[in-house]
Structures are given as structure tokens and as C-alpha cells.
């Protein structure tokens, strides 16, 4: 039996229209550290409003560059305040419309249950070969890792051991697969329901890095999209804050 | 002008590509020979396996390599047992990854040349009492020179153009795994567009020059008649 496009097209079109007529959809850009929480938030949004999210995950700096060059996103959930403020200044979002949705925490994590001690002394020892972190130029969590290493006075000692993920997602992946014994990742990546999922971690003291204030912003493209507006409203509602906190964020 | 880190990336890229080409010439030639000569049922599956990197997304290759070369992977345990340590994020690891990635670009042109040559020249050489090794170097290599040339050039150029696999197993370490394609990606990500432009132009010029040379070489050969 032969298939032709003619036969497939009506079905495909029916499918497309079905999803687009019955529920609103919004395409959003999300900083990699928030990849897990956004899934839970998407589920809440769909349950309460019927709207669905189409999520693109990446390093904040990269997402900013993409949006600036015309990427079709309605909302940006960044891992800093600089990106959303810059987008307002660029005229791609309404001035003053960005808002805080989470304060991130940096952790030193290993997939091995005994590798990382409660005080992070592992960093001073020679018990590891590679230390993963995210690209500090594009990922705020990578920048925080660099600040931490610098504050600890370990820059010279650790530089030969550093391996860089292009986002905090890839940094996590390097540690998760064991290719780097330890790595600076976001607490949200290793926590589920408020508990460490596996491995061992050191919660880096806030004094060692500048606060990771995460801002979101409704972009001009999404201003008239009910699904995008609903997401922004949900992110600002008190009810969602407990869910965000359960991933280790302050808010 | 190009920055020091750009120049470092170019130097590193050339090293990776050169080493990969040498390794694949040594590994790919016997493999191509076997594929061209064998009547084994394994010919088809193995031929398909060699071609896989042509169609596989680099992310698939990169993911498997990262897992296999990691501490829990077969290759990783093997390299650790040999005292070589782990391959991801190292120059050696990059060369290994590139060797998989560029394998078909070396093997296929050489295999085609072997097949086109047929068995006749070898039979003649044998009747003149040339040893198999002698026959290979004094008969096969000269006859199949265009195949070798194409394989070497394409393998080198393709390795220089590698990006996805490096992104997944490299760890972006300056001077170790940060090759030109990754450096360009980094420039673009942080909106250093003028830096990206300069380096991208270098790559474009290089790639065009390589392909032009290859076409001119092949063109000259065909014009030259039967040789």
C-alpha cells in the first residue's frame, strides 16, 4: 500500500486545528535551572486554565540573544535580572513589567553519595579529576560558581579541572553521567519534593556569590496571547510559590 | 583581527583534524580493503555501520560517546583499567570522538577506489611474484591514489567542521577541547557578533578552498584521460 501526502494532509490539518482552537498555547523560553519546576507549573496551568506551554530550555544569555534576534517567544523566565531589564530597554517587553519569580541557590553536587562533604572541603582536596560548571558568560549559575571559586581563593588550583557546560543543564549532565566527579549546579536540579534525589551536595553559602535573582517578563509578542498572560499571572500568584519553594528556591 | 583565543582554537582544530586523519588512514584503509574484497555476509551490516555517522545526529553520537566513555561505561572502565583515565573533556577523547564521526568520509572513497580497481592488477602483481604487501604499496596505492586523496581531504575537512559531538563530550576547555566551531558558537551566544564574523569567515574560506582544491584535482584527473 502506498501513502501519499494527499491522504495524510487532512488528518494532520485536523490535528493542528483541534489543538489550536480548543486550548491556547504559548511558546516560552526558560532558563535551564528551571526546567523541572516549569513542568510542574505547566501541569497546574493546563489543569486550571486549559492552556498549554511549549518550552524551550537554555542558558539565559543564549535565550536573550535569541529573543533579541527575533526568536518567537511570548515569555522569558531568566536566571537573572539583567536579561529581562535589557529586553525592556530593547523595547521587546513593556518597561517595568519584569518581576521576580524565584531566588536560586547554587550547590556543589556529586552523583556519588559520599563524594561531597557538608562543608565543601572536597574542593580543596585532590580527590577529583573534573569540576563541572556552566558557561559564566551566558549562565548566571556559572557566574555564581566562578564567584564562589574566587571567594574561596581556589581559582588557580581549580582552573585546570574545570569543564564547562553550555548551560547549567549540561553541567548537571556531566556530573550525572559521572564524567565530572563534582559540579556546581542549581539546587532545583538535584531536589525533588524538598529532598536530595541522589548523590551528595554542599549548599554553597549565599555569602560566596551574588544573589541569583530570577526575573520573568512578558514579551511584546505574548502580550495578546491569553495563554502567556495566564502563565505570567500564575507565576505571580501566592499559590504557586510553595511549589517553586519545594525545588529549593527562595521566594 | 583574530584574538589569541581564536588562534588557539584554530591551532587546536588543526591538531585534532590532522591526528584524526592519520588514525583513520591507518584504521580505515584495511577496513576499506576488507569491505571491498569480502564476500562475507558481514559486508552489508558492517558497511551500514561505517556509514552510520553520515545520518546519525551528532547529538546521538555525542550522547552515546559520553555515556560509553564515562566511568560507568564500557569504554570508560576499559580506559581506566589501562591507566589512561577517562576520555571525555580531553584532547584524546576529542580525537576518538572525531574518529567515529569522520570514519565514513575516509573509508568510502578508498573502498570505492579499491572496488573500481578490481582484482586484475593484483593477479598480475602476484604472477610477477610480488608479495601482497609489495603489491599493495607498488600497485594498489598508486592506482587508488585519487581515492586516498579524497578520503584524506574530506576526513580532515569534515573533522574541522565538527561541532555537535564536541559540544557534547568536550566541556569547552580552552586549548584542550575548544575548537573553532565551538568558539564561534560561544561568540554568537554572548552576542560578540564581530568576533563570530571574523572566525566564521575564516572557516568559510577554508572550507571553500578545500573543496575547490578537491574539485580541481578531480577535474584535472578526468581531463588527463585514462590514468
**DSSP helix fraction of chain B:** over 70%
| Dominant shape of chain A | globular
* Order of H and E elements of chain A: HEHEHEHEEEHHEHEHEEEEHH
CATH class of the largest domain in chain A: Alpha Beta
Distance between the termini of chain A: 59 Å
Spatial ordering of strands, largest sheet of chain A: 2-1-3-12-4
The CATH topology of the largest domain in chain A is D-Maltodextrin-Binding Protein, domain 2
What is the level 1 CATH name of chain B?
A: Mainly Alpha
The appropriate CATH architecture of the largest domain in chain A is 3-Layer(aba) Sandwich
CATH topology of chain B: MetI-like fold
Shape assignment of chain B: globular
The unreliable regions of chain B are none
CATH superfamily of the largest domain in chain A: Periplasmic binding protein-like II
**What distance lies between the first and last C-alpha atoms of chain B, to the nearest angstrom?**
45 Å
Count all strands of chain B and give the number.
0
CATH superfamily of chain B: MetI-like
Task: Provide a count of the helices of chain A.
Answer: 10
Mean pLDDT of chain A, rounded to whole units?
Answer: 91
Q: How would you describe the overall organization of this protein?
A:
The complex is a heterodimer of chains A (251) and B (227). Chain A is 39% helix and 22% strand. With 251 residues, chain A is α/β, with parallel strands linked by helices. Chain A folds into two domains: 24-103 and 212-245, 3-Layer(aba) Sandwich (D-Maltodextrin-Binding Protein, domain 2), CATH 3.40.190.10; 105-208, 3-Layer(aba) Sandwich (D-Maltodextrin-Binding Protein, domain 2), CATH 3.40.190.10. In chain A, α2 (35-49) links the parallel β1 (25-31) and β2. Chain B has one domain: MetI-like (MetI-like fold), CATH 1.10.3720. Chain B is 78% helix and 0% strand. Chain B contains eleven helices and no strands. Chain B is globular. Classes of the chains: A alpha/beta (251), B mainly alpha (227). Chains A and B meet through α3 and β7 of A and α3 and α10 of B.
Amino acid at each position: 500500500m502506498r501513502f501519499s501526502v494527499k491522504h495524510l494532509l487532512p488528518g494532520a490539518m485536523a490535528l493542528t486545528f483541534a489543538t489550536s482552537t480548543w486550548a491556547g498555547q504559548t511558546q516560552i523560553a526558560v532558563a535551564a535551572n528551571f526546567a523541572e519546576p516549569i513542568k510542574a507549573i505547566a501541569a497546574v496551568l493546563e489543569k486550571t486554565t486549559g492552556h498549554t506551554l511549549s518550552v524551550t530550555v537554555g542558558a539565559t544569555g543564549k535565550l536573550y540573544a535569541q529573543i533579541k534576534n527575533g526568536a518567537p517567544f511570548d515569555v522569558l523566565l531568566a536566571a537573572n535580572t539583567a536579561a529581562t531589564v535589557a529586553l525592556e530597554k530593547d523595547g521587546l517587553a513593556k518597561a517595568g513589567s519584569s518581576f521576580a519569580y524565584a531566588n536560586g541557590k547554587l550547590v556543589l553536587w556529586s552523583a556519588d553519595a559520599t563524594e561531597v562533604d557538608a562543608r565543601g572541603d572536597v574542593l580543596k582536596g585532590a580527590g577529583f579529576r573534573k569540576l563541572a560548571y556552566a558557561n559564566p558568560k551566558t549562565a548566571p549559575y556559572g557566574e555564581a560558581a566562578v564567584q564562589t571559586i574566587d571567594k574561596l581563593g581556589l581559582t588557580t588550583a581549580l582552573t585546570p579541572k574545570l569543564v564547562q557546560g553550555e548551560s547549567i543543564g549540561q553541567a548537571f549532565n556531566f556530573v550525572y553521567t559521572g564524567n565530572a566527579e563534582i559540579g556546581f549546579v542549581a539546587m532545583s536540579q538535584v531536589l525533588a519534593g524538598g529532598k536530595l534525589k541522589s548523590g551528595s551536595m554542599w549548599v554553597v553559602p549565599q555569602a560566596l556569590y551574588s544573589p541569583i535573582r530570577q526575573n520573568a517578563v512578558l514579551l511584546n509578542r505574548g502580550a495578546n496571547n491569553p495563554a502567556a498572560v495566564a502563565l505570567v499571572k500564575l507565576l505571580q500568584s501566592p499559590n504557586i510559590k510553595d511549589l517553586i519553594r519545594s525545588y529549593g528556591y527562595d521566594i | 583581527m583574530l584574538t589569541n583565543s581564536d588562534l588557539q582554537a584554530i591551532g587546536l582544530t588543526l591538531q585534532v583534524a590532522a591526528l584524526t586523519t592519520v588514525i583513520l588512514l591507518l584504521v580505515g584503509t584495511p577496513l576499506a580493503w576488507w569491505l571491498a574484497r569480502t564476500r562475507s555476509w558481514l559486508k552489508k551490516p558492517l558497511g551500514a555501520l561505517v556509514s552510520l555517522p553520515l545520518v546519525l545526529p551528532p547529538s546521538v553520537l555525542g550522547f552515546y560517546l559520553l555515556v560509553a566513555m564515562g566511568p560507568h561505561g564500557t569504554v570508560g572502565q576499559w580506559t581506566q583499567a589501562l591507566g589512561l583515565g577517562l576520555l571525555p573533556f580531553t584532547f584524546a577523547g576529542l580525537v576518538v570522538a572525531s574518529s567515529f564521526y569522520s570514519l565514513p568520509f575516509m573509508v568510502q572513497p578508498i573502498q570505492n577506489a579499491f572496488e573500481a580497481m578490481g582484482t586484475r592488477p593484483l593477479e598480475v602483481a602476484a604472477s610477477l611474484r610480488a608479495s601482497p604487501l609489495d603489491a599493495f604499496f607498488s600497485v594498489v596505492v598508486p592506482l587508488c591514489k585519487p581515492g586516498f586523496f579524497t578520503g584524506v581531504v574530506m576526513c580532515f575537512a569534515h573533522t574541522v567542521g565538527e561541532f555537535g559531538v564536541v559540544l557534547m563530550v568536550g566541556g569547552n576547555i580552552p586549548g584542550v577541547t575548544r575548537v573553532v566551531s565551538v568558539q564561534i558558537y560561544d561568540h554568537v551566544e554572548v552576542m560578540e557578533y564581530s568576533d563570530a564574523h571574523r572566525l566564521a569567515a575564516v572557516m568559510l574560506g577554508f572550507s571553500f578552498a578545500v573543496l575547490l582544491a578537491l574539485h580541481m584535482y578531480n577535474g584535472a584527473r578526468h581531463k588527463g584521460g585514462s590514468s
